[in-house]
Amino acid sequence: MSTTVDGDLLDEARRLRSKSNDAMLLDEALGALVARNRACEIDAAYVAYDEFPIGESDDWGNLAAFRAGVAAS
Question: What is the model's pTM?
Answer without folding.
Answer: 0.62
